[in-house]
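Entry for the shared binder. Reason: the reviewer on the internal report wants the predicted structure included alongside the sequence.
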Amino acid sequence: MDPQPLDRQALFAALLFQMEAGADECIGAEPVDRFAAAAAAREAAAARADARAPAPAPKPAAPAVLSPRQPAETDAAEAVTEARRLAAGARTLEELRTAIEGFEGCALKQGARNTVFADGDPAARVMFVGEAPGRDEDREGKPFVGRSGQLLDRMLAAIGLDRRAAGPERGAYITNLLPWRPAGDRDPASDEAAMLLAFLERHIELAAPEIVVTLGRAPASALFDESVSITRVRGRWRQAARTGGRPVLPTLHPAYLLRQPAEKAKAWRDLLSLRSVLDGAPPPEAR
C-alpha cells in the first residue's frame, strides 16, 4: 500500500519535531564533503579563466643597470693619501681647520654635527691631544667641554695651566686625534686613526709646542706607531718622530679617571712630572 502524501499541517509538524530533536539543516541521504566540493569548484573556475586568458608576451631583457649608481666609498689608501695632501698644503692653523672641514674621506664626518678642531692658546708650551669628541664636544664644536673637560681644567689648574689664559707660560692648547665624534662615543678605530693622523702631525708642526701630552691610549698609539696599553706607558716620557722629535708624555684620559677615581693619583704624578719639565728639568727617562 503506497503511503498517503502528508498535508501541509503534517509536514509542518514533522519539521517542528526534527528541530526539537536538534536538526538545524537539511541533509541528504548520503554524506557530502563540502570542502572537497568547494576546492573542485575553485579549480574549475581557474581552469576556465586560464582558457580565456591570452598568452603572455615575452619579458624584455633586464637592463644592465637596475638602479641608479651609488657613490663609491673612498678607498682607505686613497683617503690617507688625500688627507696627507690636504694637511701638507695647510700653511696656518686656520688653513688646516679648513682642510679638515673639507675632507670627505672619513665616514665619521657624515654623522657629526661639528668638526672639533682645537681650543686654547696655540702659542702654549704644551699641547694636549685627546682621543675623539664626545656628545658635548660634538654639539659645541670644542674639545673637552663635558664632564671630562671639566676635570681636565681642574687638572691643568693644579699645575698652573689654563686653556683660557693667553701666553705660552700659563696657556694650554687642546685638540683630539679625531675631529669627529664616533657613534656611541666608542674608541677610535685603527683605520680612522691612520686616516686622520696626517692632520694631527701637521697640527703639531704648525702649533709647534715644546711638549705633547697624550690623553688616553689612541693618541699615544698613533704617535708612537704601535699599539700601547696606556696604563703601562703612562708617565713614561718618550720622543716620537711623528711629533718632530718633541718629548711626549702619555697619561690617563680624564674620562677614564671619572670611571676609575682611584687612578687619579697616577695622573697627578704625571702632571707633577710635566710641571717639573716646564720648570726646566729634563724629561725623566725620555727615550
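Summary line for the report: Residues 62-74 have pLDDT under 50 and may be disordered.
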